[in-house]
Amino acid sequence: MKSLLSRVVKEAFEVDGQRFAEAVDNIVNLLSGENGEIGGVQILGRVVLLEPRGEALVIGDLHGDLESLVDILRESDFIDKMNQRTDAFLIFLGDYGDRGAFSAEVYWLVLKLKKLFPKQVILLRGNHEGPESLLAYPHDLPEQFQKRFKDKGGEAYRKIRQLFDFLYNAALVKKKCLLIHGGLSQQVSRIEDLGVAHESFLEDILWSDPTETAGMVYPSTRGAGKLFGKSVTDDVLMKLDVKLLIRGHEPCDEGYRINHGGKVLTLFSRKGAPYFNVHGAYLDLDLSLPLESAEDLIPYIHKI
Asked: What is the dihedral of CA 268, 302, 100, 224, to 10 degrees?
């Protein structure tokens, strides 16, 4: 499958704007039709439910870092695993593009993987895939697409923005962990609540960050979302009957960080400017393993 990866990466640099837009349309149609039992997962609104078996490769924020994405796929050999096993799941935590030079190429590779393995690739929504009212700033994706696709740049960008509304809010491995891009929301009391699309909820889950400051919720310096304390984490995880939260959204010098007494794991897979973290990281996990704390995940976190 290394030849497959090389071929798709080559395509990513050669694809024109028209073909890119058509590929996005195909994935929008695919995602819009996902409902109920699909392969080894259950779709509940904008939430993906997984049974605690099989294997998951979890990739955090990429922000146009094609090199790190390719390194992760090569090092993990996960394309081969998905080809050989139907219970191997590739989960992206969002923030695929923006800020990095190869956003279009990252999107192409991610969308191609979804097309090749539609029942195994899970695409979560990040704050850089948020609605217009919650758009990250600076947002350089339109300029990147214009430079990359010339006269088709506007169409390619409009198509990718349409895709954002079909990405999933969350994935949940039953009895194990919740995966979202940003943070937890006090609006959540049951699994079904994770699938809603109203703005205040999306702001919470796409923009919020954990804080070790005692207390519950504070305003965020990001200008959107909140800082949430351990009491919020404990309460939401208990209601969802899972042990821990796996999320992205924040750069980490070592590629990952643990918060809230082992209840929260942050993964950040991009390296370099404009974040200047020394390492990126990803998680390769046997979903059947017993989990009580994010500390249990350290042997399965790989730095790049």
From this structure: -10
> What residues are annotated to the active site?
128
For the chain, give the longest Cα–Cα distance: 52
pLDDT digits (tens, 9 = 90+) for 28-58: 999 999 999 998 899 999 999 999 999 999 9
Q: How far is CA 187 from the centre of its chain?
A: 21
Give the integer Cα–Cα distance in Å for 52 and 201: 27
Tell me the per-residue pLDDT of 50-96, one tens digit each, with 9 for 90 and over. Answer: 999 999 999 999 999 999 999 999 999 999 999 999 999 999 999 99
DSSP code string of 5-46: HHHHHHHHHH--HHHHHHHHHHHHHHHHT--EEETTEEEETT
- The H or E element spanning position 142 is helix 141-149
Residue 213 contacts residue 229 (beta carbons within 8 Å): yes
Residue with tokens 């609104």: 45
C-alpha span between 117 and 273 (Å, rounded): 31
CA dist., res. 180 & res. 200, Å (int): 16
DSSP code for 86: T
Q: Using CB atoms within 10 A of its CB, is residue 187 exposed (0-12), middle (13-18) or buried (19+)?
A: middle
pTM of the predicted structure, to 2 decimals: 0.97
Per residue in 227-245, pLDDT (tens digit) is 999 999 999 999 999 999 9
